Design the sequence.
């Protein structure tokens, strides 16, 4: 499967508020509220303003979190990126 | 319209017009103790009208109109004109109000702090609020609680409490009959009788209260209180708010603040006395 690259929404577009196990994200462009759980907020944070592929994000997240040597990390992140794209919080780059 | 009345409930100034005298007379009785400033511009308009002129007399049926309407809403018989007026008032507030975040929740206050109860119809939130309002609490409202997006305070909307079915006898046993409206039997919402809030609650209706406890009651089952996380409370309150989406980021900010600053519990109770005792206990334990 192709490792597609994405770019996160600009920081000024999102208001991100952790609420316990959930994180509420308000998108100022669409005026929509998104409720997400880990690892969505972590992925957005790790992307920063860069163009990121799942492989790059897996490396960045592994540097911060203990990912238990999970071989599927990259494919899981690719799936989550697809979901974030469907919500409009990241876009294909 | 032929018959007209202006009433202020909390921050909302209503103008209610009717083709018939009866609903206005019933409202005048229920809301006699509320501010009635004829010069103040209306925030919300409710119209109770006959679809055809002859339907004012011939099988009179009351259509509900106003600034906002629900298409295809069925009219009510004139005997339920008071219910039509109440539904109209609720509808205008639910669809039109923008100055506060509107929660479909009852609320009572004590010492400037508010207890907010949100739940589905039948959860008992109205009955609990009515019963607490007959104790040493100030009834803020049985249907809507208004949250100021800027400061986070709760504001009251103490309309006449809509008692339903079993709650009617329960409350009627505790209050002066003069504070009860007529029995509206077998309405689409069951039997309904209105309770006029205590004069102190009406006099204090403009006073804000700081949210101190959020409860999500459910009537039935064993007595239980389960702490609720911020995320779940947020989700439930977005569902309970009629104008969350319309308020945009102001609503988002108000709601995140409310769930962060206010402890929340889901509660179950088998009867009102147990429910009241549980509420009082949780209130006593709530941080100050």
Sequence:
């Amino acid at each position: 499967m192709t490792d597609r690259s994405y770019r996160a929404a600009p920081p000024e577009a999102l208001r991100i508020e952790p609420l316990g196990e959930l994180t509420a994200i308000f998108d100022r462009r669409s005026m929509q509220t998104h409720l997400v759980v880990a690892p969505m907020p972590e992925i957005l944070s790790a992307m920063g303003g860069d163009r990121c592929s799942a492989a790059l994000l897996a490396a960045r997240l592994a540097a911060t979190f203990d990912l238990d040597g999970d071989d599927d990390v990259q494919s899981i992140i690719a799936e989550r990126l697809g979901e974030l794209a469907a919500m409009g919080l990241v876009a294909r780059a | 319209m032929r018959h007209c009345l202006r009433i202020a409930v909390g921050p909302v100034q209503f103008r209610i017009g009717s083709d018939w005298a009866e609903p206005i007379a019933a409202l005048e009785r229920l809301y006699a103790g509320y501010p009635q400033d004829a010069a103040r511009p209306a925030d919300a308009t409710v119209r109770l009208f006959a679809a055809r002129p002859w339907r004012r007399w011939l099988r009179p049926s009351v259509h509900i109109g106003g600034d906002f309407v629900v298409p295809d809403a069925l009219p009510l018989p004139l005997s339920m004109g008071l219910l039509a007026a109440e539904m109209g008032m609720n509808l205008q507030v639910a669809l039109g109000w923008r100055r506060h975040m509107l929660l479909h929740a009852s609320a009572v206050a004590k010492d400037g702090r508010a207890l907010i109860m949100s739940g589905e119809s039948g959860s008992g939130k109205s009955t609990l609020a009515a019963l607490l309002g007959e104790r040493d609490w100030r009834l803020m409202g049985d249907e809507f609680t208004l949250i100021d997006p800027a400061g986070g305070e709760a504001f009251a909307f103490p309309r006449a409490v809509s008692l339903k079915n079993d709650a009617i006898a329960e409350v009627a046993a505790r209050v002066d009959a003069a504070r009860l409206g007529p029995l509206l039997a077998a309405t689409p919402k069951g039997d309904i009788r209105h309770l006029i809030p205590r004069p102190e609650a009406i006099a204090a209706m403009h006073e804000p209260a700081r949210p101190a406890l959020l409860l999500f009651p459910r009537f039935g089952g064993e007595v239980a209180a389960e702490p609720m996380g911020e995320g779940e409370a947020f989700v439930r309150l977005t569902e309970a708010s009629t104008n969350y989406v319309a308020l945009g980021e102001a609503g988002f900010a108000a709601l995140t603040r409310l769930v962060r600053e206010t402890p929340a519990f889901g509660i179950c109770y088998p009867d009102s006395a147990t429910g009241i005792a549980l509420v009082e206990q949780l209130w006593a334990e709530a941080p100050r």
